[in-house]
Structure formats: structure tokens, C-alpha cells
């Protein structure tokens, strides 16, 4: 058994435990491989073990290795510059990190050019940290309302970015936002919340996608990608 196989086995056990604690079915949570700095070889190993979602943080890195990966659906999970948007439209199934009107406008523009509808998540700066991107919780409604009127964008939910060692009340707040919008909009189905250090907590608070890097690939593998 490879190290990645062993890691996935442990991750699945942890997810099952967290789902049981939250009275949720195990299949209500999807594992997304966070592939920043990870070579295609290791992403393919994860795909062969049943990890079917992969998320990149950098557009150039995505473009350089996507063709070498088989069996995954690509998402984009990093901060996105408007001048990079055209490289993603039609190539990624979900953009997690929409945090401003200018970015939404560019996604709309490039999607219209290709005649496609692009699925997005609104990124939320859950801890209101100056060093992190995302709209503040009190700004979610304004961005949601703006994006809803763009014909080539479909909002699928939210990606909260939480502080390290965030209190559980913040997870509960993010779950509250997700649940409120889910109740009013049938397209709101995804809460992308939780990373290697907190995914069990995130699952207990309603995460439908957890973005796992180091606990899946290991810290050594993460450093081996050469762009």
C-alpha cells in the first residue's frame, strides 16, 4: 500500500466518524485533492484510489499539469486575478473563490464568449482577517444579489476561509449562512469548508466539500512540483 493509499484510508475513516457524529451520510461529503505544488503522478495515484475532485490554487500550475492527470474533475480554489479568468472558463467545473464584483464580471464576460454557464462559490472571509481574501460575512448578500443577475454565472454555494484554530462558533456561523441561502435558492448545494487541519470539524458543521492537501499527499510530496 502506498503512502497516499494509507492517507486516503485514514481520511475516509475520519470522515465517516465526523459524519456519524453529525448524523450525516458519508456520501454527503466530497474530498477535493488540493494539488498546489503536487506533481501529476501523485494526483493520478489519488484518482486511482477514488479521489475524483482536484483543486488548483494557481492558474499557470493548473494549465501546466492538467493534461497529465486522468480521472478527476478540476476545480479552482485559489485567489483569482481577472486577467487569468479566460484560462479557466470551460476547463474547470467550479470556481470556489469569487470574492468581488470585478471578478464576477470577468467570469460573466468570458463565459458569455464561450456560450457556457460557469458554476461559482462565493468566498467568505469568515474571520474578517486583513491578510485573507473573501467578502466579509455582512457583505455576502450584496455579492450574491449581484451575481444572481448575471446570466452566465450560477452560484452553487460558499467557500469560507477560516482562521487557524478558529472557534467552532465561526463554523456554526458559516453553516448558518449556507443553510439560509440553501433554503431560498435550489442551486445552493455546496459548502466548501475545511482543510487538512480542520476537516472533521467542518464536516460536523455541514461542509459538503473538504479541500485536503498535506493530509492526503504529505508535506514532502507537496514540495516536489517543478513548474
What are the defining features of this structure?
227 residues, alpha/beta, eight-stranded parallel β-sheet, globular, disordered C terminus
List the helices and strands and how they pair.
Blueprint lengths: L2 H19 L8 E5 L5 H9 L4 E4 L2 H7 L7 E4 L17 E5 L2 H14 L3 E8 L14 H9 L4 E9 L6 H17 L5 E2 L7 H6 L4 E4 L1 H4 L1 H4 L5
Parallel strand pairs: 1-2, 1-8, 2-3, 3-4, 4-5, 5-6, 6-7
Helix tally? 9
Low-pLDDT runs: 221-227
How many individual β-strands? 8
Class from helix and strand fractions: alpha/beta
Secondary-structure element series: HEHEHEEHEHEHEHEHH
How much of the polypeptide forms β-strand, as a percent range?
15-25%
Describe the largest sheet: 8 strands, parallel
In percent, how helical is the residue content? 25-40%
| Gross geometry | globular
Distance between the termini: 28 Å
Strand numbers in spatial order across the main sheet:
7-6-5-4-3-2-1-8
Whole-angstrom Rg: 17 Å
Structure, explained:
By secondary structure, this protein is of the alpha/beta class. It is 39% helix and 18% strand. Strands 7-6-5-4-3-2-1-8 form an eight-stranded parallel beta sheet. It is globular and about 50 Å long. It starts with a helix and ends in a 5-residue tail after the last helix.
Amino acid at each position: 500500500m502506498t503512502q497516499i493509499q494509507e492517507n486516503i484510508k485514514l481520511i475516509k475513516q475520519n470522515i465517516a466518524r465526523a459524519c456519524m457524529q453529525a448524523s450525516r451520510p458519508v456520501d454527503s461529503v466530497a474530498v477535493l485533492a488540493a494539488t498546489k505544488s503536487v506533481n501529476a503522478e501523485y494526483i493520478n495515484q489519488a484518482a486511482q484510489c477514488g479521489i475524483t475532485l482536484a483543486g488548483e490554487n494557481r492558474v499557470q500550475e493548473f494549465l501546466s499539469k492538467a493534461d497529465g492527470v486522468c480521472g478527476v474533475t478540476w476545480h479552482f480554489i485559489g485567489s483569482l486575478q481577472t486577467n487569468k479568468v479566460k484560462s479557466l472558463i470551460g476547463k474547470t467545473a467550479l470556481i470556489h473563490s469569487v470574492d468581488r464584483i470585478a471578478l464576477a464580471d470577468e467570469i460573466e464576460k468570458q463565459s458569455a464568449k464561450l456560450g457556457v454557464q460557469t458554476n461559482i462559490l462565493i468566498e467568505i472571509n469568515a474571520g474578517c482577517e486583513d491578510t485573507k481574501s473573501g467578502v466579509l460575512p455582512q457583505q455576502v448578500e450584496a455579492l450574491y444579489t449581484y451575481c444572481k443577475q448575471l446570466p452566465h454565472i450560477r452560484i452553487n454555494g460558499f467557500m469560507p476561509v477560516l482562521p487557524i484554530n478558529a472557534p467552532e462558533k465561526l463554523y456554526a456561523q458559516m453553516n448558518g449562512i449556507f443553510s439560509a441561502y440553501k433554503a431560498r435558492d435550489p442551486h445552493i448545494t455546496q459548502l466548501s469548508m475545511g482543510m487538512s487541519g480542520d476537516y472533521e470539524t467542518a464536516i460536523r458543521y455541514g461542509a459538503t466539500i473538504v479541500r485536503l492537501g498535506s493530509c492526503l499527499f504529505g508535506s514532502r510530496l507537496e514540495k516536489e512540483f517543478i513548474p
